[in-house]
Amino acid sequence: xxxxSFSAFLxxxxxxxxxxxxxYATREVGAWVVSPSSDQKGCFLTRTYPEPxxxxxxxxxxxxxxxxxxxxxxxxxxxxxxxxxxxxxxSNSAFPRHLAIGIATAGQRGFVTNFGATFPRNFASSDxxxxxxxxxxxxxxKLDGSGAAIxxxxxxxxxxxxxxxxxxxxxxxxxxxxxxxxxxxxRDSRK
Length: 191
Hints:
alpha+beta; disordered N terminus; elongated; 3 helices; 10-stranded antiparallel beta sheet
């Protein structure tokens, strides 16, 4: 399993997004909120569940395809940087003894972890997420509307990806594109 640095995890925990993040405005999709990340390298969706537990779920997707799942709760005592092995179960797949790292932000504590490339599809088609710490249940969350939320999340990521691709297709001086014919604008070559 690829380990992602603690600072990379924290970049998705920030709730505030940069205002000019590739012209993507935060959107509500049912109970989910889809927003660009503040580093403009991806997007995340957020859902806060009602009291008494008040858990917040965030799922981030980067333009390079990597992802992060964060669960935060004002009642939890997990320590920042604490490493745990948790069992994650979606309706259609399981991830036993999966590494998660403790975090603390905005008066809440929780954990963050990453999954493989198929996780967003599994998440979108699942009705629930269950997390356990051995025999102890950590959280059980309904994922209703996650399919539409993941579809919108992908649109947001595509918007983030477009400026990165445009920048990489130009020469160092920014004058000549690597593929001048890839532009949608038509030029009349008969002039």
